[in-house]
Specification:
By secondary structure, the protein is an alpha/beta fold. Helix content is 38%, strand content 19%. The strands form 3 sheets. A 9-stranded mixed beta sheet has the order 1-2-3-7-8-9-12-13-14, with helices on one face. A 3-stranded antiparallel beta sheet has the order 4-6-5, with no helix packed on it. A two-stranded antiparallel sheet has the order 10-11. Helix 3 crosses helix 4.
Length: 323
């Protein structure tokens, strides 16, 4: 081969190599913001959290959050948005089932204990589509396997790797004795164990479920509750302040979760849509207690406000209660 040909070939290789390096550098620069946000998630566990049960989910609207809980029947495809930083969690009702859910028809009616006529306002936005809901007997043979096979597995296949487990206290509406309640709690524990046995990497956030934490705390990523400062009165369709007695009880539970189990605690509070002053005030109050805040509207149909709690910050939960 002639020297001129060798020289030409050398230049071509140099150009190609330089182009490849340039593309690599641009790719790293483009991914850096997302990687930074994801790094924040791994450092704090939960980070800034959002709960959104609206039908129109646009992934780009949640890029400032680290953990996002969605209504799975919204049609959102988490597998198509893996490049986005939020960890996508699916809302899942454990203690209740509605005819609106696809899996309802497959459940034996002997598993359903009672019509849930006494629903409270806890996450009614996700459960408004669950009219005629019933309490599920957590002791029913086959229920843990059904829960994993028919409810969790389809969501896992769609790309969800986290699950927000709601209605964990619904059994209280039908279990009238300590013995009956203990059996229902044992059933809930069996359901969570079955879920984690099938999907060990699944991340779980509980909505309350304080009674079963001694048995499942090592399988849980965080514990949430609602209305520490701002609440939504669904019956009267109005917002209001949380009574001091209710707040002190919740703070006692939060202290137990934080100090005994070292788990992040999330409070979901409510303000009227557009009331930015209310949202910022409640976010500040919750964050000062070392609790992860999320403040939104009573229907969880708008994107609310959150703020990540710094992992190494000294939480004020115990200080507040001891005072």
């Amino acid at each position: 081969m002639k020297a001129t040909s060798l020289a030409h070939l050398g230049v071509s290789w140099i150009v190609a190599a330089c182009a490849a390096v340039a593309i690599l550098l641009l790719s790293v620069a483009w991914l850096r913001p997302a990687l930074s946000a994801c790094k924040r998630v791994s450092a704090s566990g939960i980070g800034a959290v959002a709960f959104y049960y609206g039908a129109n989910v646009r992934a780009e609207q949640f890029e400032s959050f680290d953990t996002v809980v969605l209504e799975p029947d919204s049609g959102f495809d988490p597998a198509a948005h893996l490049a986005h930083c939020p960890k996508w969690y699916a809302y899942v009702s454990v203690g209740e089932v509605s005819k609106a859910r696809a899996y309802y028809a497959k459940m034996p009616h002997t598993w359903l204990l009672a019509a849930d006529d006494a629903r409270d306002a806890m996450h009614d936005s996700a459960r408004d589509s669950m009219h005629d809901s019933a309490v599920v007997d957590q002791t029913a043979p086959g229920w843990p396997a059904f829960f994993v096979d028919e409810i969790i597995e389809p969501l896992w296949e769609r790309g969800y790797r986290g699950f927000f487990l709601d209605t964990l206290d619904s059994y209280r509406r039908v279990a009238q004795t300590d013995a009956a309640r203990a059996k229902q709690q044992a059933g809930l524990v069996a359901v969570l164990h079955a879920l984690k046995a099938r999907y060990p990497q699944a991340q779980l956030i509980l909505n309350r479920g304080f009674e079963i934490l001694p048995q499942v705390h090592d399988q849980v990523a965080a514990v949430a509750f609602e209305s520490l400062f701002g609440r939504w009165d669904r019956t009267n369709q109005r917002y209001g302040a949380v009574p001091d007695r209710d707040r002190e009880w919740l703070l006692g539970e939060a202290r137990e979760v934080h100090e005994r189990y070292q788990l992040p605690v999330i409070s979901i509070d409510y303000c009227a849509p557009g009331d930015d002053a209310c949202r910022e005030d409640i976010v500040r109050k919750i964050g000062a207690l070392g609790i992860v805040p999320y403040v939104t509207d009573g229907g969880l149909q708008t994107i609310g406000v959150s703020r990540a709690v710094i992992k190494d910050a000294e939480p004020l939960i115990s200080v507040t209660l001891k005072g």
